[in-house]
Write a structure and sequence with these properties.
alpha+beta; 23% strand; single chain; Gyrase A, domain 2
Length: 102
């Protein structure tokens, strides 16, 4: 599995709201409540298990931070793009927006 560059990740359709930090893609979702954050984490867990690709997820009040990387490839891959798209879509479905990169 070959890695992709940060630019290739950013150019991928549907990866809006994500930014690259080192060899990982990161998005932070403003959930507004702990309960809504839990809903998002549950959905991320379902998507990750289905894809057999598991991100680091940090649940806090009032946000959820998601970090994606393909460990066995040593960086970002198309698997990260695909899961980022799914996570973004799930968040939108819950009425949750990604926070802009700070």
């Amino acid at each position: 599995m070959s890695t992709i560059t940060a630019e290739e990740f950013h150019d991928a359709a549907g990866a809006g709201g994500w930014h690259v930090e080192g060899d990982a893609a990161v998005a932070t979702y403003a959930t507004g409540s702990f309960a809504k954050g839990v809903e998002l984490v549950v959905e991320i867990g379902r998507l990750a298990d289905a894809a057999n690709h598991h991100p680091d997820v940090d649940l806090r009040y009032p946000s959820v931070r998601v970090l994606l990387t393909t460990h066995d490839a040593g960086g970002l891959t198309d698997r990260d793009v695909a899961l980022a798209r799914q996570v973004s879509e799930a968040a939108r479905g819950l009425g949750i927006e990604a926070q802009p990169e700070v």
